Amino acid sequence: MSSIRHLIQGHTRDIGFPVKRLLPSMEARTVGPFVFFDHMGPVTFDAGTTEGDVRPHPHIGLATVTYLFSGAMMHRDSLGSVQLITPGDVNWMASGCGIVHSERIPEEIREKKTVVQGLQMWVALPQADEEMSPGFWHYPAAELPYVDVEGGKLHILAGSAYGQTSPVKAHSPTLYVAANLQSGGKLQVQADYAERAVYVVSGAATLDGEALAAGTLAILEAGAVVEVQAQQDTILMILGGEALDGKRFIWWNFVSSSKERIETAKFAWASQQTDMFPKVPGETEFIPLPDR
């Protein structure tokens, strides 16, 4: 019997640069608290342009989790946070009742034609925290624990795994680990969390003997301890956590357990109500509310 419940290949969208979306999908809308999973790049951007810049836009009811493999991005938000994120760091932004942020490519990255590649995830906040005050936390790579495994190294990004606990301010039991494995390297994914998945960023691996190509998200069966082995030098992610405490609705950048709350947020952004969605200091642009 296979230990894989679903294999998700996702679909690539061009939003000024290539983005592969794995969640939500027809096969699985969530994995633990993760409700959204985008793989950005790899891509380079031309100097003197705004290619790759994401103008100010709003969020409610979720935490954005940004992690880069290469390149850099500049985060700004309506709390006044200004933070450069570089490979191995984690940016964790809890939107709660409402926040606005932008993400832009630094000019130095453009001028040097540095490849930008990373993941942006959304974690649905527990219902009790959906209307919390927004917050932003940056965790440099060196502050997040590393674990050696056979033929590789793990970076514990959020939650507890492999005997280590990340300092990242997760709001519910969360599993998020980056793994760099040399060819032949192995690791076990324990059944410590109710919902888990493995994503192959680059390279190739097997999961209990089943082949996983780059760009594949494998949703695991509950309770199964599985072994992942790299068939070549491979980067992969392990993600999951406890199941959500109820259904979530997603519309554009808004996540909530209440459809009515999303309608309120839509109206507030369309009318640029700064009590719910304050301006981002230093920014003059914004992404309008989409038609659908």
From TrEMBL:
It comes from the Bacteria. Binds 1 Fe cation per subunit. The keyword Metal-binding applies. Residues 18-123 form the Pirin N-terminal domain. Belongs to the pirin family. Keywords: Iron, Metal-binding. InterPro entries: Pirin, Pirin_C_dom, Pirin_N_dom, RmlC-like_jellyroll, RmlC_Cupin_sf. The keyword Iron applies. Fe cation binds at residues 57, 59, 101, 103. Residues 176-271 form the Pirin C-terminal domain. GO terms for molecular function: metal ion binding. This is Pirin family protein. Its cofactor is Fe cation.
